[in-house]
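G., the chain you wanted modeled:
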Amino acid sequence: MLWEPIRLAVQAIFRNALRSFLTILGVVIGVAAVIAMVTVGQGSKDQVTQDVAKLGTNLLVVRPGQPQQGPGSSGGTSAAFDMRDVEAIQTQVPGVRAAAPANTRTMTAILGSRNHTTSVIGTDSRYLETRDMPVVQGRPFYESELRSGSAVCLLGQTIVRELFNGGDPLGQDIRLKTISCRVIGVMEEQGVSSFGTDQDDFVLIPIKTFQRRVAGNSDIVLIYVAVQSGVSTESAKANIESLMRERRRISPTEEDDFNVFDMKQIASVLTGITGVLTGLLSAVAAVSLLVGGIGIMNIMLVSVTERTREIGIRLAVGAQEGQVMLQFLVEAIVLSLFGGLIGILLGLALAAVGANLLRVPFSPDPLIILMAFGFSAAVGVVFGYFPARRAARMNPIDALRHQ
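Predicted structure as tokens:
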């Protein structure tokens, strides 16, 4: 029973192909824009999650300074940490897998006539564990090198490209100002984060080497803490805060002069912001669907007027009002579904291009695609109902007199 109205609807659509395409253009643009926005937004969320995961699994970062100064603060005038604080977190906080010290300074790495400004990080072997950064060429630091403060270093992939131009860096010496350090290993490539930061642009040297020959003191400005799998980072964070308050002799009435950041919380905030922006943009794009629905109603009213005699003949030979109404309603729905299908294909294509340009994963959501297709059908029902009802309620005699 339904096949005949569908066949007649398709014939009517292709009889005026250009007009039909222009009619559904609003639906096409609306569906395409919503799918493209949601897909790129989901890709951005996935990229943020991947970037935070690259920083380390179940990672906490401890910094000196007031909490309200934020993750980018230098700690202000608060006292820095020392190695005893690192060891206390490692041994006294339950569930801690590893705690690694870190000091950072921007310096120029030099090899022959080549040079590159980079981040020099003083740390020890636990840094590789907390940040989940394996050595892919060479070896990590020996304990004897860490104890003695030897002039050895591990390189990120960017330094290898900039200084060695594809050559083998192992066993060669690079200069960091007045320090000549031997390359003993190369780290696994991390890539560029969604914030545009090169995560491979660094040189790792032993913490004692950094303190003696770069900083000139024994301060620790960062402590990376990796929590064991299955242990709550919230619980570990609370235990670290309690321990550090005790070690830094902070009274119950005083605020912390340090802060502990949970990378999961940062990821949650960032993905939340991305989700809100994606929702707002998708809502704006969805307005095109409303415009497209109005266009379908307009053209269906024109179609009813053009086919008045046809409607009159059908009613005169015994067609029921419901059959006439069904024909025009199906035509509006089929018209809208055509727009939905084209919009889905166009939206996925735009999303793929956008994901490639923004360097985020292409993450189409089947649920969103089904919802867009269903919404386009709903547009046909809602905006096709009034023209269909108008056609069904025509007086056959008046319709036959229409010229």
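The mean pLDDT is 82.

Shout if anything looks off.
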